[in-house]
Amino acid sequence: MAPPSQLAIATSSLVRLVKEESSYHKELQGQLARIENLDEGDENAEYILKQEKRGIEETKAMFPELRDRIKAAMERLDLQLEAAKEAGSISNVEEITKAKEAMAQAKTSYREIA
After folding, report:
1. CA distance 65 to 102
2. How many degrees, rounded to 5, is the angle at CA 66 between CA 61 and CA 69?
3. Cβ atoms of residues 7 and 92 within 8 Å
4. Count of CA atoms in the C-beta half-sphere (13 A) of 14
5. Contacts from 4-7 at CB under 8 Å and sequence distance 24+?
6. 3-40 residue pLDDT tens
7. Residue 64 confidence (pLDDT)
8. What is the DSSP letter of 43?
9. 52 near 34, Cβ under 8 Å?
């Protein structure tokens, strides 16, 4: 089995980062929901609230770094797409299609973060 091409590696890297960004958004929504549903009659409510707020701040702190990583991965993939087009190999059509789809998904995700 042939090793994956640089285009396939760059594509999978970008897809992974977009999934990671999505999971951070889900985590943030879950943390916000837990704060809303916090029972104030609970004796540990103040401590739990403090912990959840800290978790939210840590999650939010990940977004700028993640945005930079997604941007860098998009640039790498763009370079690999250019190289694949210059090579003109027909066998790369499937990889190029996957790369373009990943790029479109990443651009949408990048706009949401920014």
Report:
1. 19
2. 145
3. yes
4. 30
5. 5/92, 5/95, 6/80, 6/83, 7/77, 7/80, 7/81, 7/83, 7/84, 7/92, 7/95, 7/96, 7/99
6. 888 889 999 999 999 999 999 999 999 999 988 888 77
7. 93
8. T
9. yes
Encoding tokens for residue 30?
A: 């879950």
Q: Which residue has the tokens 């087009």?
A: 85
Residue 18: closest CA among 78, 90, 104, 76 = 104
Contact (CB, 8 A) for 61 and 113: no
Place of tokens 């809303």: 36
Return the amino acid letter for 50: K
- Residue 1: both structure tokens together: 């089995």
Burial of 64 (0-12, 13-18, 19+ CB in 10 A): exposed
